[in-house]
Amino acid sequence: xxxxxxxxxxxxxxxxxxxxxxxxxxxxxxxxxxxxxxxxxxxxxxxxxxxxxxxxxxxxxxxxxxxxxxxxxxxxxxxxxxxxxxxxxxxxxxxxxxxxxxxxxxxxxxxxxxxxxxxxxxxxxxxxxxxxxxxxxxxxxxxxxxx
Length: 147
Fold this sequence. Notes:
Layout: H1 6-26, H2 30-40, H3 48-60, H4 62-70, H5 82-97, H6 103-117, H7 122-137, H8 139-146
Helix pairs in contact: 1-2, 1-3, 1-5, 4-5, 5-6, 5-7, 6-7
């Protein structure tokens, strides 16, 4: 088994923000969205397996994922801009489902996505919310880091 380069996974997350944004605005199923992204983008340097896993995983469990971070919002879920919502879904999915990714890495990657794609100061908001998701979902890992 080969491990994808971090930059390939980063590119997968960047495309995923765009795919989730599209899904939020236009709808469609994960298979159709993935097919379109495969046709419209050069994926040679993208971890396509990771893109596939997260796209299908997030859309299959979107209510659970939204519920995991919604309790930490200072506004209603539907008041979030679509980019911040997409980034929070990616970060929360990684915190809940990808225990192989250290929680600080998942949060940092989400913060960087918010800086690149989100509105001004979205990265601070994403960081605060995902810190709370990590504290609740990765108690042992967070406690070990804080020692």
